[in-house]
Each structure stands twice: as C-alpha cells, then as structure tokens.
Amino acid sequence: MRDTIYCVFSVLTTLVLAVVSLRYVKDFYLLSFFYSFQLHLAVAAAAASIAAVVVKRHWYGFLTLGVSLVLAAHGVVMTREFVQPAVDENRPALFRLLSFNIENDNFANGPGIADMVIASGADVVNILEAEPLLSELPRLLKTYPYYIGCGVGMEQCDTLVLSKRPLIEPRIRNLGLLWRNRLTVSTIDFDGRKVNFLAAHLTKPYYDEFHGLEIEDLDEIIPSLPGPLVLAGDFNTSILAPDVQYLMRRQGLGTASLEPATWPIRAGPFGIPIDHVFSKAPLRLKSVHRIENSFGSNHFGLLAEFVVDP
Asked: What domains sit in the chain, N to C, each tagged with a CATH number?
C-alpha cells in the first residue's frame, strides 16, 4: 500500500514538473497557462514530494523535491527581474491610472463601476470589455471629458480610455490577427511632461500562437513612442510567460515591487497577476494596488501611481 501511494505521488509530481520545465526547452503555447502558474505548481510539487518522502524514503522523492524548489526559486527570480527601484512615499505622484477589465456582460454592475471610477481620483482610466459602461458614459464625461473608444475611433465598445486631460493624437490599432481594435495609443501632457499611454487587451495565450503575434506587434509599436510610456491592460497571462518576459527585456519595461493577483477572483491574493501596469523610463511606478471589489467581473482592477525621474 505504501509503495502504491508513493508511486502515485511520484508520478503526479513528475508530470507537473515536466510540464513546467518544458518552458526551458521551447515556449509551447498550449502549455502557456501552466507557465503562468509556475510558482503555484512548483510549491504544490514540493508539497507532494515531501508527502512522498514521508510515505517512503526514496532518492526519487528527494530529487523531485529539489527540482520543485529550483523551479519555485527561479519563478521568484523572474518576478523580481523587472522590479523598479522604490519611490519615496512622500514624493508626489505625477498622475494616477485605473485599469480594469469589467467583463462585457456585466451590465448589472455598470452603475457601481461608474461610481467607483469617478471616486477613484484617477487621471486616466482604461476600461476593457467596456460595454456595461456605455449607458453610464454621459455622467462619466462630466469627470473625464476626453475619451476614445465606445463610438469614438471604433464602433465597438471593447476598449474605453477616459482622461481628465486632452488626449493628444489618440488612435486605435489592431493587435495580432484574431481581434480588432484591441490597442489604444495616446499621449497626455501633464504640465509640460508628455506621457504615452497604451491600453492593451491580449488574447488568451493558449489560442494557437495569436498571443505571441500580439506581443510582437507591441514590440514594434513601443519603440515608435519615445519618452515616458505606460503599457497597461489585460494580458491574460502572468509576467512569468516567456513571451511577456521577452517583451519586457526588449523594451526595458518595469513593474512595481509586487504585482497584485487579479485572477481568478475566488483565489484572492493567491491568484496570479494577468492584468498588468508596466512603465518605461524615465517614468516609474510609485505604487500599484488592487481594487478589492471586483464589481461582478472575473478580474480585479488595478490603481497605479507614477512619478517621472529627472
């Protein structure tokens, strides 16, 4: 009986470790979902390895435990690779950004989301799958008179960018080959300091190779926007995904010290961050906080503050 239990633990642990480890051989899109959960899976594999060793002391259990700990440690290293230096809390923020995928059939919570947006104090707001806010747009425009999306620049209401300040040359672009109008590009002048804003909504990474093509499009667009830059939105994958890491290294993008988990909402802080706020020097993130109320969405929203270095 002990041998059977040990065998079950060992087989399951081996399968999990094999799936996670394949990222070091080839970025296979069908496994990208598991790459985002590398930390979670590695910790689970370590726990299973310890259980196996308790049942039966055998060298293979110690081997899988060692591999699990290595994968977990490298997962932590990868999440810390792009962290920007901390900003003094007393330093005033240049602006505040709210980014939130509200889910396109979440009409019952549209008024509550609009109330939250107005009360947030954000200078710029990115709303993805924004159809539930279309009826709330007239009162949102009293606080945010400048916008693109939901009838301006595109007929659909997938992406909505609201701003308290004028949007300079706002435009909407396609990402990849699957969906249209999933990227908005604009510039906002904050008292003489112009900042570029990109609001992106990427495909789920296991939909063939479309996610990688969208990352390639972003890799081409970002260099055409010199100066401070914000890239925010729903990437449908964590920063551990190989293609996201490729983009961040290539374009010098940075994150806050700890990206809040935004999905699945039932997991709370134990989920993964698939919604991101990235910045490019000389712009730097002062803070990123999760909006604790999901307002019926399957994502949590993010509220971020930024400063610009001299």
From this structure: 2-80 (no CATH), 95-308 (3.60.10.10)
Closest CA to 120 of 290, 298, 308, 310: 290
CA–CA gap between residue 105 and residue 81 (Å, rounded): 36
Give residue 153's pLDDT band: very low, low, confident or very high (50, 70, 90).
low
CA–CA gap between residue 40 and residue 271 (Å, rounded): 9
**Neighbour tally for 20: CB within 10 Å:** 26
Give tens-digit pLDDT for 94-110: 999 999 999 999 999 99
- Tell me the CA distances in angstroms from 30 to 203, 261, 302, one per residue in order: 13, 22, 28
Average pLDDT over residues 170-191: 90
Predicted confidence (pLDDT) per residue in 33-79, tens digit: 889 999 999 999 999 999 988 888 888 989 999 999 999 999 999 99
Please report how the helices 2-21 and 59-80 are oriented relative to each other, as an axis angle in degrees rounded to 10.
Answer: 30
229-234 and 253-254 as β-strands: parallel, antiparallel, unpaired? unpaired
Backbone phi and psi for residue 242, each to the nearest 5 degrees, phi listed first: -60, -40
Measuring CA to CA, how many Å separate 200 from each of 169, 182, 278, 296? 17, 6, 11, 21
Per-residue model confidence as pLDDT tens digits over 118-143: 999 999 999 999 999 999 999 999 99
Tell me the C-alpha distance between 59 and 129, whole Å.
Answer: 51
Cα angle, residue 307 at apex, residues 159 and 293 outer, rounded to 5°? 45
| Cis amide leading into 282 (omega within 30) | yes
> Of the given ranges (1-10, 140-149, 261-270), which has the lowest mean pLDDT?
1-10
Angle at which helices 38-55 and 2-21 cross, to 10°: 160
Is the Cβ–Cβ distance between 92 and 298 less than 8 Å?
no
